[in-house]
Specification:
This protein has 100 residues and is an alpha+beta fold. Helices cover 39% and strands 12% of the residues.
């Protein structure tokens, strides 16, 4: 498997985890896996920073958009930060800016 194939595969898995129905007990484990995958993608690609943009749809609903890849994410409850989305599930961008 090439580096690019590994990045693509990990990103697909991470995106699936983002929409995985989370029961209270599973939520922490899914978030830990999601963070680990994001870290692996970051290590393979080189670091990319981004931030969550709060957006509003045509019906007044709120969704979140990655500033790096512009993919949209709907959360049932809370913000990406409250749900421990430290990485974008699509592109792997680190969402909490930190010093290099």
């Amino acid at each position: 498997m090439t580096r690019e194939e590994a990045i693509t595969t990990l990103a697909k898995i991470q995106k699936l985890l983002a929409i995985y129905p989370k029961r209270k007990k599973q939520k922490e484990s899914v978030n830990e896996i999601n963070t680990a995958i994001g870290m692996a993608i970051e290590a393979l690609k080189g670091r990319t920073d981004g931030e969550w943009r709060e957006m509003e749809d045509d019906y007044g609903g709120v969704y979140w958009e990655c500033s790096n890849c512009e993919d949209a994410f709907f959360l049932e409850v809370g913000t990406p930060k409250e749900n421990n989305y430290n990485f974008c599930p699509s592109c792997g961008a680190w969402m909490e800016r930190r010093e290099p």
